[in-house]
Design a protein that fits this description.
binds hypoxanthine, alpha/beta
Length: 267
């Protein structure tokens, strides 16, 4: 199925994407930045999971951004939608087969670290997988990578250095932190957030980690950036709602687009 999807995409495009980019909740506007774009609806691609989450468009846009051939996934499949690990990571494997060598993952996340504020952009330096599962469970596909892939630099140090330099050059504040992934879809309780803080998490979210594991398995270099759309449960005396998550995504999109455009040519 992965091969069939990759062949289908190849038959439709003019340039081979070098970098795959996954857009998180509220960050879908970046897809409009792609020049000479070929836009393919997920529903057309054999085996590609449809995205049902609000704020996720459900299309693959392939073309040029800042002179770099990219494949932008506007919309991802989450475990909380009922998708399997294989479905949640399908797009990454397909993009590897299409020819991408690196991935940029973006997401909306709750801020656990009290130094963060709503709207902060945070470079993910590492993760804690609390989703109770792993996309590589099952027979190993040696054509992608080894049975026991190393994860000691899951988020490329070199890419992080580039992102920090670019952020400084354009005057965007960029923090760095550890992302904890839970399945959701309920947001965390305040007690869960205290626990996550105690074990070293700065951010919490419901995505990205399966994709990052699969990308590392396939020797793709990874850059990941979270947008702190809300402070995590219990940090502020207010409830979390998805509208707020989407609104914050829209508010930071200018900075976010600028940062990605600066980083891409150096990947
Ligand atoms: N928790 C989990 N996932 C999220 C959050 C949150 O507070 N905000 C955006 N995605």
């Amino acid at each position: 199925m992965i091969q069939a999807a990759a062949e289908f995409i190849k038959s439709r495009i003019k340039v081979t994407p070098r970098v795959g980019i996954v857009l998180g909740s509220g960050l879908g506007a970046f897809a409009d930045e792609v020049e000479d774009a070929v836009s393919i609806s997920y529903s057309e691609i054999p085996g590609w999971p449809q995205s049902t989450a609000v704020g996720h468009a459900g299309k693959l846009v392939i073309g040029m951004v800042a002179g770099v051939p990219v494949a932008v996934m506007a919309g991802r499949a989450h475990l909380y939608e009922g998708y399997t690990q294989a479905q949640a990571t399908f797009g990454v494997r397909v993009l590897k087969r299409v020819g991408a060598e690196a991935m940029i993952f973006t997401n909306a996340a709750g801020g656990i670290n009290l130094n963060y504020g709503q709207g902060a952009l945070v470079l993910i330096s590492d993760h804690i997988n609390l989703q109770g599962s792993n996309p590589l469970i099952g027979p190993n596909d040696e054509s992608f990578g080894p049975r026991f892939p190393d994860m000691s630099e899951a988020y490329s140090k070199a890419y992080r250095a580039v992102a920090r330099e670019c952020a400084a050059a354009i005057g965007i504040s960029l923090q760095e932190g550890v992302y904890a992934a839970l399945t959701g879809p309920s947001y965390e309780t305040p007690a869960e957030i205290r626990y996550l803080r105690a074990i070293g998490a700065d951010l919490v979210g419901m995505s990205t980690v399966p994709e990052v594991i699969v990308a590392n398995h396939a020797s793709m270099k990874v850059l990941a950036i979270s947008c702190v759309t809300n402070m995590a449960a219990g940090v502020l005396d207010q409830k979390i709602d998805h509208e707020e998550v989407l609104e914050t995504g829209l508010r930071v999109r200018g900075a976010f687009v600028q940062l990605l455009k600066a980083v891409l040519p150096r990947m």
